[in-house]
Amino acid sequence: MEPRIRVSAVLRREGRILLIRQEKPGKEYWMLPGGGVDAGETLLEALKRELAEECGIDEDLPLEGPIAVVESIAPHGTKHVVHIIFAGYLGGRSLEAVTSKDAAVRGHRLFAGDELSDLPVHPPIQRFLERWEPGDPVVYLGAMWAP
User: Fold this and answer.
1) Distance CA 89, CA 8 (A)
2) Is the distance from CB of 83 to CB of 71 less than 8 angstroms?
3) What is the pLDDT along the chain (147 residues), one digit of tens a residue?
4) What is d(CA 16, CA 116) in angstroms, rounded to the nearest whole number?
5) SS3 for the chain, per residue?
6) CA 88, CA 17: separation in Å to the nearest integer?
7) What CATH number corresponds to the domain at position 81?
8) Do 73 and 6 form a contact (C-beta atoms < 8 A)?
9) Domain total of the chain
10) How far apart are CA 133 and CA 130, in angstroms?
Protein backbone atom coordinates (compact mmCIF):
# COMPACT_ATOMS: atom_id res chain seq x y z
CA MET A 1 0.00 0.00 0.00
CA GLU A 2 1.28 3.42 -0.98
CA PRO A 3 1.63 5.95 1.87
CA ARG A 4 -0.89 8.80 1.82
CA ILE A 5 0.36 12.36 2.39
CA ARG A 6 -1.61 14.47 4.89
CA VAL A 7 -0.88 18.11 5.69
CA SER A 8 -2.01 19.79 8.87
CA ALA A 9 -1.35 22.90 10.94
CA VAL A 10 -0.68 23.74 14.56
CA LEU A 11 -2.83 26.89 14.71
CA ARG A 12 -2.20 28.86 17.90
CA ARG A 13 -3.77 31.74 19.75
CA GLU A 14 -2.74 32.89 23.23
CA GLY A 15 -0.87 29.65 23.96
CA ARG A 16 -3.78 27.44 22.87
CA ILE A 17 -3.93 25.07 19.89
CA LEU A 18 -6.92 24.53 17.59
CA LEU A 19 -8.02 20.90 17.24
CA ILE A 20 -10.83 19.46 15.13
CA ARG A 21 -13.12 16.76 16.56
CA GLN A 22 -13.73 13.94 14.11
CA GLU A 23 -16.30 11.20 14.32
CA LYS A 24 -16.19 8.06 12.27
CA PRO A 25 -18.15 4.83 12.91
CA GLY A 26 -17.19 3.66 16.38
CA LYS A 27 -14.46 6.29 16.86
CA GLU A 28 -14.18 9.83 18.12
CA TYR A 29 -10.85 11.65 18.26
CA TRP A 30 -9.18 15.04 17.87
CA MET A 31 -6.81 16.05 15.06
CA LEU A 32 -4.91 19.05 13.85
CA PRO A 33 -6.92 20.66 11.04
CA GLY A 34 -5.80 19.44 7.63
CA GLY A 35 -6.20 16.60 5.19
CA GLY A 36 -4.95 14.75 2.15
CA VAL A 37 -2.86 16.19 -0.66
CA ASP A 38 -4.43 15.78 -4.11
CA ALA A 39 -2.38 14.98 -7.23
CA GLY A 40 -0.85 18.13 -8.70
CA GLU A 41 -1.39 20.14 -5.50
CA THR A 42 1.46 21.65 -3.50
CA LEU A 43 1.58 20.99 0.25
CA LEU A 44 0.58 24.60 1.02
CA GLU A 45 -2.23 24.60 -1.56
CA ALA A 46 -3.61 21.42 0.01
CA LEU A 47 -3.33 22.85 3.52
CA LYS A 48 -5.09 26.09 2.59
CA ARG A 49 -7.89 24.12 0.87
CA GLU A 50 -8.29 21.87 3.92
CA LEU A 51 -8.33 24.84 6.35
CA ALA A 52 -11.12 26.39 4.28
CA GLU A 53 -13.05 23.08 4.19
CA GLU A 54 -12.62 22.10 7.85
CA CYS A 55 -12.40 25.46 9.62
CA GLY A 56 -13.91 28.01 7.26
CA ILE A 57 -10.54 29.83 7.21
CA ASP A 58 -10.27 30.93 3.62
CA GLU A 59 -8.21 34.10 3.97
CA ASP A 60 -4.46 33.96 3.53
CA LEU A 61 -3.16 32.71 6.88
CA PRO A 62 0.62 33.08 7.31
CA LEU A 63 2.08 29.58 7.69
CA GLU A 64 5.59 28.39 8.53
CA GLY A 65 7.13 25.04 8.10
CA PRO A 66 7.03 22.23 7.84
CA ILE A 67 7.73 22.03 11.57
CA ALA A 68 7.29 18.26 12.01
CA VAL A 69 6.81 15.01 10.14
CA VAL A 70 5.17 11.93 11.64
CA GLU A 71 4.00 8.63 10.20
CA SER A 72 1.00 6.67 11.37
CA ILE A 73 0.84 3.05 10.34
CA ALA A 74 -2.21 0.89 10.96
CA PRO A 75 -1.68 -2.67 12.21
CA HIS A 76 -0.89 -5.14 9.44
CA GLY A 77 0.08 -2.24 7.14
CA THR A 78 -3.50 -1.62 6.04
CA LYS A 79 -3.02 2.16 6.14
CA HIS A 80 0.12 4.30 6.12
CA VAL A 81 -0.13 8.10 6.42
CA VAL A 82 2.77 10.56 6.38
CA HIS A 83 1.70 13.70 8.26
CA ILE A 84 3.52 16.93 7.33
CA ILE A 85 2.80 19.56 9.95
CA PHE A 86 2.98 23.34 9.48
CA ALA A 87 2.31 26.14 11.98
CA GLY A 88 0.28 29.32 11.94
CA TYR A 89 -1.14 32.02 14.19
CA LEU A 90 -4.90 32.51 14.37
CA GLY A 91 -4.64 36.12 15.53
CA GLY A 92 -7.92 37.69 16.51
CA ARG A 93 -10.08 35.91 13.93
CA SER A 94 -13.29 34.62 15.43
CA LEU A 95 -13.87 30.90 15.58
CA GLU A 96 -17.54 31.35 16.44
CA ALA A 97 -18.53 31.22 12.79
CA VAL A 98 -16.36 28.21 11.93
CA THR A 99 -18.30 25.77 9.84
CA SER A 100 -17.01 22.68 8.16
CA LYS A 101 -17.81 21.22 4.76
CA ASP A 102 -16.30 17.91 5.94
CA ALA A 103 -18.98 15.47 7.12
CA ALA A 104 -16.59 13.76 9.60
CA VAL A 105 -15.84 17.03 11.45
CA ARG A 106 -18.05 17.40 14.53
CA GLY A 107 -16.57 20.51 16.09
CA HIS A 108 -13.46 22.37 17.05
CA ARG A 109 -11.90 23.84 20.16
CA LEU A 110 -8.80 25.67 21.36
CA PHE A 111 -6.86 23.60 23.91
CA ALA A 112 -4.13 24.58 26.36
CA GLY A 113 -1.08 22.29 26.33
CA ASP A 114 -1.92 20.79 29.73
CA GLU A 115 -5.35 19.66 28.45
CA LEU A 116 -3.89 17.42 25.74
CA SER A 117 -2.41 14.52 27.71
CA ASP A 118 -5.71 12.65 28.26
CA LEU A 119 -7.26 13.63 24.93
CA PRO A 120 -7.58 11.03 22.12
CA VAL A 121 -5.40 12.81 19.52
CA HIS A 122 -4.57 11.21 16.17
CA PRO A 123 -1.76 10.75 15.46
CA PRO A 124 -0.83 10.64 19.17
CA ILE A 125 1.46 13.71 19.22
CA GLN A 126 0.24 15.31 22.45
CA ARG A 127 3.76 15.54 23.94
CA PHE A 128 5.02 17.35 20.83
CA LEU A 129 2.09 19.77 20.87
CA GLU A 130 2.55 20.49 24.58
CA ARG A 131 6.17 21.60 24.16
CA TRP A 132 6.42 22.99 20.59
CA GLU A 133 7.24 26.70 20.34
CA PRO A 134 7.49 28.89 17.22
CA GLY A 135 11.04 28.84 15.89
CA ASP A 136 11.80 25.30 17.10
CA PRO A 137 13.68 23.18 14.51
CA VAL A 138 11.87 20.70 12.26
CA VAL A 139 11.42 17.40 14.02
CA TYR A 140 10.74 13.84 12.81
CA LEU A 141 8.41 12.26 15.33
CA GLY A 142 8.87 8.74 14.02
CA ALA A 143 6.42 6.03 13.06
CA MET A 144 3.44 5.52 15.36
CA TRP A 145 0.94 2.72 15.22
CA ALA A 146 -2.51 4.07 14.58
CA PRO A 147 -5.34 2.80 16.79
Assistant:
1) 13
2) yes
3) 788 999 999 999 888 899 988 877 778 889 999 999 999 999 999 999 998 888 878 777 889 989 999 988 887 768 889 999 999 988 776 666 555 555 556 678 888 888 988 888 888 888 888 888 888 888 887 776 655
4) 10
5) CCCEEEEEEEEEECCEEEEEEEEECCEEEEECCEEECCCCCCHHHHHHHHHHHHHCCCCCCCEEEEEEEEEEECHHHCCEEEEEEEEEECCCCCCCCCCCCCCCEEEEEEEEHHHCCCCCECCCCHHHHHHCCCCCCCEEEEEEECC
6) 10
7) 3.90.79.10
8) no
9) 1
10) 9
Residue range of the domain that includes 61: 4-145
Contacts 24+ apart (CB under 8 A), 95-100: 95/18, 95/55, 97/56, 98/55, 98/56, 98/57, 99/56, 100/20, 100/53, 100/54, 100/55, 100/56
| Cβ atoms within 10 Å of 125's Cβ, excluding its own | 22
Q: How many CA atoms lie within 13 A of 100 on its CB side?
A: 18
